[in-house]
Model the fold of this input.
Amino acid sequence: MMRSLYSGVAGLKTHQTKMDVIGNNIANVNTTAYKASSIVFNELMSQTTQRASGPNATTGIGGVNARQIGLGVKSGAININISGQGSAQSTGNPFDIMITGDNFFVVSNGMENFFTRDGSFYVDGAGNLAMTSTGYNVMGWQVDPETGFIKQDNVTALRIMSTANLTYPPEATTMANMSGIIDKNDTDVTNPNGKAVNLNFFDALGYQYTAKFVFRQSDDVNEYSLELDKILDSTGKEVEIDQATLDTLLGGATKQYKTGKIAFDDKTYEWDGAGKMINSATGEIMADLAQMYDGGTLKDRATEIELTYTDKITNAEVTVTRTVQEQLDALAKAYGYEGSTDEFLNQLVQAPASEDGRTPAAEVSVSQMLANLAQTPGGVAEGEGMTLPTSGSFGTVGRNYYGIKVAFDGDKGHFAGINGQLTVSTAKLNLSALGGNFEDIEIDFSETSMFDNKGTSTIGAVSGDLDGLGTGRRLGDMIGVSIQRDGMIYASYDNGMTRLLGQIATAAFANASGLEKAGDNLYSATMNSGEFDGIGVDITANGGYMSTGQLEMSNVDLSAEFTDMITTQRGFQANSRIITVSDTLLEELTNLKR
Done:
């Protein structure tokens, strides 16, 4: 038989194999991250009819080359264009990831690791990052709970939607700062009610509260008192705090000197001879000092007292019940301090020395004067210490308060210390005295100033120090997940916090073309690719990076594939002609005998 027949058959087979490779490439032209294959041919073998001979110097005959007849062709190798980067396809899905570089994602079916360039991922029902096609878990590195940083150890499944990751724990506020301008001509600052400043803060359970502070100007316009008025919860309800505790939350007892005047409303109210305040229109008793005080000591403000009087209009005897607090409120209203009872009680009056010299000049508070008046028989305005005037008006020299003194440099307007200490710029809000879940808050005043701002003060308070630390927060719910260029996975929460959840690991091989296709866009490591060490590498170590919202397209070049298809078709056609012609020759040979 003729050797050309077998050469033609070998040529048909190899070209058919090449067409198989081309067909597979074209079939996967839209397969995510598919890497095109190519085939190379090798000659099969040759039959040597005469070996080569060397030249003979004696006879002068030259050498003769070997005579060999080829016996066909075979497939030499099928190579994968593993390093050819496919184009980017935008998807908008944050869990679709494209690798730029030579690395591979590491995925696992629970028993062994595979490698892929297909970054089409999703979060499964268990919260794991997984391949959309196979459900294999994407592998990576976890966060070290002690340091909060990635620990590059053996890769494990990335469970990014665990119960612990769905929320961010609350934290109590521990730092705050006040900043802005106090303008000494601001009417809010100069009036008795003062300039209100609110500070929002959190307790350890994440509940939000508002501390309401008040700045009040003294006769020294460079010095201001700052005191805590009240604390409100997130619903606007005032937190119940007894007066003794409230007075110790921000600094201790101190005095502020500012002259003023208090006037008694004698058109609406009048004092009777027994030390009771009555309404002049109906005779209603608004406060009975004799019952409010016990031996000069004010009873508990919640104590209820029955007040009996004769209505001037109906002449009927009427009994009403009022607490000590309600009676104090009525007194404050009669002296022009409606809604500011404690401010009224803390006003200071300069009491002169007695004529006999036994009682020296002193500053007496309205609260002390009421106690003195309660012990004075018949409402006489004399007794042990000064008593509250029961008509007309009287001057004040200042007020008692619980808080701190904030001072400014009168020449430059800069902050100048707290409580007379130039080097102190912080004060502590002692919320731990309330018990429960509160923590003390350190308030920084160094960014406050006293400049001319056209009568408008801009001072305000925010939680956190000047670097944003100690702000506190409420419980946060996860609102999004983002993946960085280095594979770091971060969760964002609606309380403004972010958390590192893990990092996607990658694998790099010395000979990536030596990987073995395992189907489903997966590869397995082989002896010729190099083994995977179980840990992997950071993608940025080799200059690569990840892009989210994109997938890598197939790197099949259709123009090259169709060109190869043409040459393959012609090669197949030519080999078929070899067989046909060889057959014709054999036919002629058999026809020699007829």
